[in-house]
């Protein structure tokens, strides 16, 4: 009773993650990208290792957390899309090492991808929902939002800035892992940037500290800490299988009740620390 027969232990889930969620970015070795010169265009593979990392979600609940100092104490800090630090340093910190951006950021001019300081002097990782069957030709012709033209431009204009595109196989592998650990049928849409980022960081951090992904006692329907827009779906999910991602992250984590409640923080071991 209670325990479901099909549910894996924490260790088994971590092991599945380590074995099936190796980071993969577009390297131009496949068509149509090889023909388009992506082999020369893509930067050298990401391989720096960090000891401790922070993943800072954009949830409204991080407001009034005073977590900024703790977040900045990590060796690397991951942020999402257009989430700012300026004016929110006390709660979210001021250090950014990597930013995951969905293709709307590249395609939609309101985000000023080319000129905004949010996207300068950091590593960028972009993604777009490709078809589940990973038909790269179809994806290139019909991305959800056109990220390829802005990517090519940006790589040519700022060749020194590390800028990657997630390989769709990484994204859909993660979806498969969420589904394989969930009783219900989840929606056939990619995981949220938050989940992609958490698992990406497990690839090159010994310890991953995730803030306000699993909601703290400050849980609110305020969608983002940086704008006054209220929608509970931001925290629980509509398009993305967010709720199921969060259940999985919580099951994989080793966090005290206190860290969860007060900080909305869970800690995950990096792949290098998982023994299978
Ligand atoms: O909102 P978004 O995500 O940029 O948030 C980044 C990640 O933080 C986690 N989050 C956010 C808010 C909240 N209340 N609770 C949370 O747990 C999630 O893990 C989320 O992924 C995205 O995933 O890329 C998303 O992007 C926005 C939007 O495109 C960008 O902010 C750019 O404006 C999407 N919103 C819309 O398309 C309207 C959102 O669905 C997902």
From TrEMBL:
Catalyzed reactions per annotation: a beta-D-galactoside + CMP-N-acetyl-beta-neuraminate = an N-acetyl-alpha-neuraminyl-(2->6)-beta-D-galactosyl derivative + CMP + H(+)
Presence of keyword Cell membrane: no
Compartments (UniProt record): Golgi apparatus, Golgi stack membrane
Example of a GO MF term: beta-galactoside alpha-2,6-sialyltransferase activity
EC number: 2.4.3.1
Top class in the EC scheme: transferase
One cellular-component annotation, GO: Golgi cisterna membrane
Record GO biological process: sialylation
Record's keyword terms, sorted: Disulfide bond, Glycoprotein, Glycosyltransferase, Golgi apparatus, Membrane, Signal-anchor, Transferase, Transmembrane, Transmembrane helix
Cystine crosslinks: 53-205
UniProt family annotation: Belongs to the glycosyltransferase 29 family.
Function summary: Transfers sialic acid from the donor of substrate CMP-sialic acid to galactose containing acceptor substrates.
Protein name from the UniProt record: Beta-galactoside alpha-2,6-sialyltransferase 2
Species in which this protein is naturally found: Carassius auratus
Gene name tied to this protein: LOC113050753
């Amino acid at each position: 009773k209670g325990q479901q027969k099909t549910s894996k232990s924490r260790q088994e889930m971590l092991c599945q993650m380590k074995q099936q969620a190796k980071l993969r970015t577009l390297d131009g070795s496949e068509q149509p990208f090889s023909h388009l010169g992506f082999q020369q265009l893509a930067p050298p593979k990401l391989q720096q290792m960090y000891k401790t990392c922070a993943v800072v979600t954009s949830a409204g609940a991080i407001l009034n957390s005073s977590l900024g100092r703790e977040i900045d104490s990590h060796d690397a800090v991951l942020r999402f899309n257009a989430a700012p630090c300026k004016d929110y340093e006390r709660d979210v910190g001021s250090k950014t090492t990597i930013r995951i951006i969905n293709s709307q950021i590249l395609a939609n001019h309101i985000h000023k991808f080319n000129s905004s300081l949010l996207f300068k002097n950091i590593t960028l990782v972009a993604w777009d929902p490709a078809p589940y069957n990973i038909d790269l030709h179809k994806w290139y012709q019909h991305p959800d939002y056109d990220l390829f033209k802005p990517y090519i431009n940006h790589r040519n204009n700022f060749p020194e800035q590390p800028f990657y595109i997630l390989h769709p196989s990484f994204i859909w592998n993660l979806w498969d892992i969420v589904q394989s650990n969930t009783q219900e049928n989840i929606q056939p849409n990619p995981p949220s940037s938050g989940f992609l980022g958490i698992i990406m960081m497990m690839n090159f951090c010994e310890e991953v500290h995730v803030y306000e992904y699993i909601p703290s006692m400050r849980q609110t329907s305020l969608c983002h800490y940086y704008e006054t827009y209220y929608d509970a779906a931001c925290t629980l999910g509509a398009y993305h299988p967010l709720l199921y991602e969060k259940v999985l992250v919580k099951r994989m984590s080793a966090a005290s009740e206190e860290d969860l409640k007060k900080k909305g923080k869970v800690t995950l071991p990096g792949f290098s620390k998982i023994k299978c």
